[in-house]
Amino acid sequence: MPEEPRQPVVAGQFYPADGSALAHEIERCFEDPRGPGQLPSPQRSRGRTVRAAVVPHAGYVYSGAIAAQAYYRIALEHPPEAVLVLGVDHYGKSSGASLSDRDWMTPLGPTAVDHALVRALARDPVIVEESAHAREHSIEVQLPFLEYVLPKPKFVALEVGSGPFEFLEEVAGVVRRAIAGRDVLLLASTDFSHYVPARTAERLDRLAIDAILARDARRLYDTVLAHDISMCGVAPTTVLLAATRAEPLVPRLLRWGHSGEAEAMRAVVGYAALVLETGEGGAPALK
Fold this sequence. Notes:
It is a single chain. This protein is α/β, with parallel strands linked by helices. The chain is built from 8 helices and 11 strands. Mean pLDDT is 95; it is low at 280-287.
């Protein structure tokens, strides 16, 4: 195991590099009208309904308030023993499905890795490959939120590269077996349509979101390919859906939005926060 924690690579770009400023920025995301509109209560329920979530990973000024929708729900419930963050391979550095087996540092401090969960996940085709995480931001930007809403969270980073559906099903099988009997919260990190007009983003993202709400991994994968939707995290989201397919979960869309809501622009990036939870629930209209 590497002795030194992985250092942040997008601090000062996607989020503030100073710890105090970062905490204030996270609080701004919670209080933003596009977010929950308030900070999470320090009181937590004894149980937990949120099993998994889909969250964006752009700069906090653009997507942080929408990500806060999901983290607000997580903050109100009993903390999980570990969090598995499924990220994107934006730079083509992964051999396919790459784990990190080291702590990760943010301006808020270190986030400890769950070594036992790493060992359970390190089964072909999933491997430990630290170099795949060297530049990737999709997992890193989730950690300050996790550190803010969970007391001393333990996590595992799993970067999922693009590939045929059968490969993603294989990765999902490894994830499903590794988390069986473990108290693990799953996160899939993804943005949706990239650099298109807002109306186009809403139309295309609705197709992908409908597939997620149907909990249909194959439909999501095929829809993104058929409609050429520039959803960067289709691979980790497909893995999340396939890994939890047999569980009795209810999907819920918390909010969809785009970067043009934060700053005037002609071509936007779409974002969504969704949760999969136990018990009764429903999917509100896209908003």
